[in-house]
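Quick illustration for those who missed Monday's session on complexes.
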Amino acid sequence: MGSSSVQCIFFVFIILNFISLSTAASSHGEVEDEHEFNYKKNDDKGPERWGEIKPEWEMCGKGEIQSPIELMNERVKIVSHLGRLIRDYEASNATIKNRGHDIMLEKELEAITDLDDAEKHVRMIDPKQIKIGSRKYYRYIGSLTTPPCTQNVTWSVVRKIRTVTREQVRLLRVAVHDTKQEMESSPIRCIFFVFIIFTLFSFSTAATSNGEVEDEREFNYKKNDDKGPDRWGEIKPEWEMCGKGELQSPIDMMNERVKIVSHLGRLIRDYEASNATIKNRGHDIMLKFEDGAGSIKINGFQYELQQLHWHSPSEHTVNGRRFALELHMVHEGKNGRMAVVTVLYKIGRADTFIRSLEKELEAITDLDDAEKHVRMIDPKQIKIGSRKYYRYIGSLTTPPCTQNVTWSVVRKIRTVTREQVRLLRVAVHDDSLTNARPVQPINKRMVHLYRPRV
Ligand SMILES: [Zn+2]
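Prediction with zinc ion bound:
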């Protein structure tokens, strides 16, 4: 499924309604005949051609409010007026059916795995047992995601990402027995995984308590919130620098305040592969190096690489421009002083280092406070691509906002895909759309831009 599996998981909720319609799959308007369309790329019956297969399916091609969509941070507006999803379900007789492209329902799955066009009375099924675990949901108006792609469908995509085992996914997929089709799934195809996945999970863990704790974090990134960035300094005495400190980070690297110098010298990075743990810290994803990953040298002083993590969008800005992602490589010297090396990313081609971590990121996406041994990670694989960097003295950008941190912000803006940014963000599942602290006052600080002498 690759990285699109995470994306798929968003498209869960409305499909649940299909289950509650008990038997008649046809009554909700989706097409029954599994051979009329498929999910193959560049195929006569593939998704790009659905609109041409039958006149009554033309919306699949021409419709302008089609589903699924990408739930991108930038286009999401947080509101409270929609109100909670009020679900008033009750148990009903249900039938499990293999529709050729997906499966409706549960543990009778194995029984129909090898039957063509199997349909099987199941038993009483109670949709109330489908756990959602959150009151938050995305809402938009879209369409059915299979022909005839009927529009004006109200989608409610539950924000919380739930879990399922690999085996459950496999079972559902195998049961469909169209697996000779390419298994790299398009986002559209994923929906069918998810629909089923969600159902299975809920049934198999019906006894698990699911009291979701709403944001128990000590701080967050919400504006005008008690725990938001403007209040960090008041939350705990030891966090007071967040409010009072005069050398705080991040800052804007504005041309006018940047002085170009050559005396700083190149960033001398002397990294080596180390065992690493990937950890969900609630506000970000951190890769922690367990045994010496090497060091950088600044002004002749050595700082050991401790961990790295990401912020999206970027925390530092350049002439007011904010980028899609920012990497922080956190180093510590023997005297306890910190040095952070930062790389900024805009949307474009995939970053190869993040790509190498995608599997691990997906694996921790649904674990709370997950910590997971990864494997040997080599920081040398983090591409910087430039000798130029900005240098200034600032602070940690999260509480306790400790000052006198030496920042080296690589000048070159690198690229990352939207999907990679999203994956890093979704993995955090802290209900925040961002984890970027607002830009802090510069307070007469000097910002240098190191440029090698030519
Ligand atoms: Zn950071």
